[in-house]
Specification:
Layout lengths: L14 H12 L13 E6 L11 H14 L3 E6 L13 H17 L4 E6 L4 H12 L3 E5 L6 E3 L2 E3 L3 H11 L5 H10 L12 H11 L15 H20 L3 H4 L2 H13 L5 H12 L6 H8 L16 H6 L2 H8 L16 H5 L26 E3 L7 E4 L10 E9 L2 H7 L12 E4 L20 H4 L7 E4 L11 E6 L16 E5 L4 E4 L3 H9 L10 H9 L22
Parallel strand pairs: 1-2, 1-3, 3-4, 9-10, 10-11, 11-12
Antiparallel strand pairs: 5-6, 7-8, 8-12, 9-13, 13-14
Helix pairs in contact: 2-8, 3-4, 4-11, 5-6, 7-10, 7-11, 10-11, 10-12
Organism: Metabacillus herbersteinensis
Pfam families: ILV_EDD_C (PF24877), ILVD_EDD_N (PF00920)
InterPro entries: Dihydro-acid_dehy_C, ILV_EDD_C, ILV_EDD_N, IlvD/EDD_N, Sugar_Degrad_Dehydratases
Length: 568
C-alpha cells in the first residue's frame, strides 16, 4: 500500500505525533483513518465574486469531487489567489507570479497526492500551470469555460472585443449614450470568461494542446451540461494520474510546447500566450526563445475563424469540435507521441476526431486555410533588439509595411492626458509610441498597448493607426498594435529613447522594426537617461527587482529551473 500524502510531512519534529494530531483534526471531515490511505486530491478553488469570470465555479468543484470519489480518491478543496482582469488594479499581470507562487507553495505545503487546478480568467490558467510545473506532482487543469454569445439588435456580441469596438464608436460619436448603455447590458450575458479567442480562451486551448487538460475542455461553454461532465471526468482522471505517477514534467516538454504554439498560431490566439508559454517552459528548465514562435508561425496555417482575428466565437468553436478539431487538422505538424493527462498520447486523443462539413467556415481544412501563416509574428530591429510581437491577422493590411513619424507618450498617464488634447500634433499616418508601460516601468506590463485613436481622428473616420509599446494588449483587442518591445524603456531599452518626430519603419513581411536614428544619436540620448524609481516596499518592490523581460516570460529570475539540454 502506498504511503498516504498526509504522512509526507511533519510539522512538529516527531513524525508519529504529527500524524496523530493531523488525524485528530481531520476527523471533522467525516473520513475514517483508512480513507486517507486512498489518493488525496487537492482541488485548487479560485472562486471569487470579485473575479466575475470565476463566480460560477462552485458546481464545478462539486462535480470534480464526485469524479474523485467515483475513482476511489479523497477530494480536499483549498483556495488560492483569484485574479480577475476587470476588477484588479493596476493589472493582473503584476500578480500573475504571485498567484503562481501561491499555487506552487500550497501544493508543496499541503498533504495531497495530486491536484486539480481550476482556471479561467486570463492570468489564472498560466499562473496555475507555472506553479504546478514547479511543484511537479500529478496535476490536471480545467477552466470555468467561456460565456455564451451576447446579442444586440441581431448582432452577435463578444466580450471584450465589442467592448473596445463600441467604446471607440462612442468616442467617435457614432452611437448614442442610450445605445451604449443597451450594448453594455448585452456584452457579458452569462457566467464564464470572455467568449472570443482572447487570453483566457487562448490559454485554455494551449493547455489542452500541450496535454494538461482533457480533450475538448477549452471550448465547452460555462453554461453547458458538458462542462459538468468534463469536471467529473477530470476528477476521475486525476486519481488515475496519481496511480500512474504521471506529473507535469512528463507532459510539458519541448515538443508538447511546440504543439501548444502550433495551436496558438492556428486559432489566432492572444499575444499574451507568448509570454505565458515562455514562463511555463522556464519553470521546467526548457529554453523557449521568442524566435521559436515566429519559426512555427511561418509553417502553421491559420484555420480557426475566431474573433478578434476572424468571424465566430467560442460557442461556435465548441459546436465545430473545439481544440481537438484544430489539432486533427494540424496532425501532420504535431508531435503526436507526446504524453497527455489522458494517460495516452496526443495521437490517441485525436485518432477518432471528425469534422462536419457544416462547420467548415469555423474550422478550415489544413489544405485550404484562412491564411497560410499563423496569427502572431515576431519583429526585431534596433527599436526592439530582443523582439516585439504583432497579430497581423487582426491588423490593417495597409499598415503592415509602413513608414511614419513617431508621436511619443512617456507614460500611460501622459497618454490619458494628451491623447484627445486639440493641440496635439498628430495625423493618421503617424505612429503612436507608449513608453514605460513594461514589466518594470508600469509596473506589471498592463494591457495598455491598444492606444486609443485621438478623438478628432475618430470623427474623421480613422479606425486604426500603428501603435508601438512595451506594454501588452488584451487578447480580445485588435488593430495594428506592436507589443512586448524588449528591452523595455524602464531598463534602458531603445523604445525609451524615441522622441516625437523620429521616423520609424514597420515591415512585418520581413519582420523588421527600425528606428531611423543613428547609433551615435541614440548613445547621446542614452547618456542622459535615468532609470525609474523602484517601489519602496513589499511585493511591488520584489516584482520590479526580479521580473524578467517579456521575451523571457516576465517570470521572476529566482523561480527558473536549471536549464535542460536542448532535445528538440
Amino acid at each position: 500500500m502506498k504511503e498516504p500524502a498526509n504522512k509526507k510531512l511533519t510539522s512538529y519534529g516527531d513524525a508519529g505525533f504529527s500524524q496523530f494530531i493531523r488525524q485528530a483534526f481531520n476527523r471533522h471531515l467525516g473520513f475514517d483513518e483508512e480513507d486517507f490511505q486512498k489518493p488525496v486530491i487537492g482541488i485548487c478553488n479560485t472562486k471569487s465574486e470579485i473575479n466575475r469570470c470565476h463566480t460560477h465555479i462552485g458546481p464545478l468543484v462539486e462535480a470534480i469531487k464526485k469524479g474523485v470519489l467515483m475513482a476511489g480518491g479523497i477530494p480536499l478543496e483549498f483556495p488560492t489567489i483569484s485574479l480577475g482582469e476587470i476588477n484588479t488594479s493596476p493589472t493582473t499581470m503584476l500578480f500573475r507570479n504571485l498567484a503562481a507562487m501561491d499555487t506552487e507553495e500550497m501544493i508543496r505545503a499541503q498533504p495531497m497526492d495530486g491536484v486539480v487546478l481550476i482556471g479561467g480568467c486570463d492570468k489564472v490558467t498560466p499562473s496555475q500551470l507555472m506553479g504546478a510545473a514547479s511543484a511537479d506532482i500529478p496535476s490536471i487543469i480545467i477552466t470555468g469555460g467561456p460565456m455564451n454569445n451576447g446579442e444586440y439588435e441581431g448582432r452577435t456580441l463578444g466580450a471584450c472585443s465589442d467592448c473596445r469596438f463600441f467604446w471607440q464608436e462612442y468616442r467617435g460619436d457614432n452611437i448614442t449614450e442610450q445605445e451604449k448603455d443597451a450594448i453594455n447590458e448585452a456584452l457579458a450575458p452569462t457566467a464564464g470568461h470572455c467568449m472570443v479567442m482572447g487570453s483566457a480562451s487562448t490559454m485554455a486551448v494551449c493547455a489542452e494542446a500541450m496535454g494538461m487538460m482533457l480533450p475538448g475542455g477549452a471550448a465547452i461553454p460555462a453554461t453547458h451540461n458538458a462542462r459538468l461532465k468534463h469536471a467529473i471526468e477530470t476528477g476521475k482522471k486525476i486519481v488515475e494520474l496519481v496511480n500512474k505517477g504521471i506529473t507535469p514534467s512528463q507532459i510539458i516538454t519541448e515538443k508538447s510546447l511546440d504543439n501548444a504554439i502550433r495551436a496558438l498560431m492556428a486559432v489566432g490566439g492572444s499575444t499574451n500566450a507568448v509570454i505565458h508559454l515562455i514562463a511555463i517552459a522556464g519553470r521546467l528548465g526548457i529554453k523557449l526563445p521568442l524566435d521559436r514562435f515566429d519559426e512555427l508561425s511561418k509553417t502553421t496555417p491559420f484555420i480557426a475563424n475566431l474573433r478578434p482575428a476572424g468571424k465566430y466565437q467560442m460557442e461556435d468553436f465548441f459546436n465545430a469540435g473545439g481544440t481537438p478539431a484544430v489539432l486533427k487538422e494540424l496532425e501532420s505538424l504535431l508531435h503526436l507521441d507526446e504524453l497527455t493527462v489522458t494517460g495516452t498520447t496526443l495521437k490517441e486523443n485525436i485518432r477518432d476526431v471528425t469534422i462536419s462539413d457544416v462547420y467548415r467556415d469555423i474550422v478550415y481544412p489544413f489544405e485550404q486555410p484562412l491564411h497560410k501563416e499563423g496569427g502572431i509574428a515576431v519583429l526585431k530591429g534596433n527599436l526592439a533588439p530582443n523582439g516585439a510581437v504583432i497579430k497581423p491577422k487582426a491588423a490593417s493590411k495597409d499598415l503592415l509595411n509602413h513608414r511614419g513619424r513617431a508621436v511619443v507618450f512617456s507614460s500611460t498617464k501622459e497618454l490619458e492626458k494628451m491623447i484627445d488634447d486639440p493641440t496635439l500634433d498628430i495625423q493618421a499616418d503617424d505612429i503612436l509610441i507608449l513608453q514605460n508601460a513594461g514589466p518594470v516601468g508600469a509596473p506589471g506590463m498592463p494591457e495598455a498597448g491598444m492606444l486609443p485613436i485621438p478623438q478628432y481622428l475618430l470623427k474623421k473616420g480613422v479606425r486604426d493607426m500603428i501603435r508601438i509599446s512595451d506594454a501588452r494588449m488584451s487578447g480580445t483587442a485588435f488593430g495594428t498594435v506592436i507589443l512586448h518591445v524588449a528591452p523595455e524603456a524602464a531598463v534602458g531599452g531603445p523604445i525609451g529613447l524615441i522622441q516625437t518626430g523620429d521616423i520609424i519603419v514597420v515591415d512585418v513581411d520581413n519582420r523588421k522594426l527600425e528606428l531611423l536614428v543613428s547609433d551615435e544619436e541614440l548613445a547621446n540620448r542614452k547618456a542622459s537617461w535615468t532609470p525609474p524609481t523602484i517601489a519602496a516596499r513589499g511585493y511591488v518592490q520584489m516584482y520590479q527587482k526580479h521580473v524578467m523581460q517579456a521575451d523571457k516570460g516576465c517570470d521572476f529570475d529566482f523561480l527558473l529551473a536549471p536549464q535542460k539540454e536542448k532535445v528538440r
